[in-house]
């Protein structure tokens, strides 16, 4: 599977739909995790959504943040992440996109991104949450006539 430079596809056949759901449906990646957070920090927060079967923390070369892959023992544990796109843990916002999403669904979660500049030193994303709630609840007040 090496050498061509093309994307590879791994096909896994399951004997039952339950086995497929247990493997794929209960897994989700978590991104934007700062390096000061450990696997124990991540697991202690995400165990409130269900029983964690496995958790893997990793980072790519020269990455500024870590990523995690959490597998729950039930697909029901990640059902609410269809609506909730991010969570706050330790004053940090993590993005969550279930693995079973299509490419279009994943890209729609990245479609609208805001870059805030010239913020005061030591400003954390949790400090901006009240301001962002106003934008979500009343977006028309920021639109030009």
Automatic annotation (TrEMBL):
One term of GO molecular function: nucleic acid binding
Alphabetized InterPro entries for the sequence: RBD_domain_sf
Domain of life: Eukaryota
The protein's name: RRM domain-containing protein
Species in which this protein is naturally found: Rhizophagus clarus
């Amino acid at each position: 599977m090496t050498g061509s430079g093309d994307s590879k596809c791994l096909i896994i056949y399951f004997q039952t739909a339950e086995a497929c759901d247990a493997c794929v449906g209960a897994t989700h990646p978590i991104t934007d995790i700062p390096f000061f957070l450990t696997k124990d920090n991540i697991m202690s927060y995400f165990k409130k959504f269900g029983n964690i079967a496995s958790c893997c923390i990793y980072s790519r070369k020269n990455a500024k943040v870590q990523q995690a892959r959490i597998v729950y023992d039930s697909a029901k544990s990640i059902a609410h992440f269809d609506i909730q796109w991010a969570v706050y843990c330790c004053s940090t916002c993590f993005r969550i996109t279930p693995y079973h999403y299509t490419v279009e669904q994943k890209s729609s979660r990245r479609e609208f991104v805001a870059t805030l500049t010239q913020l005061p030193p030591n400003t954390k994303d949790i400090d901006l949450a009240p301001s962002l709630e106003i934008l979500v609840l009343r977006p028309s007040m920021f639109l030009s006539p």
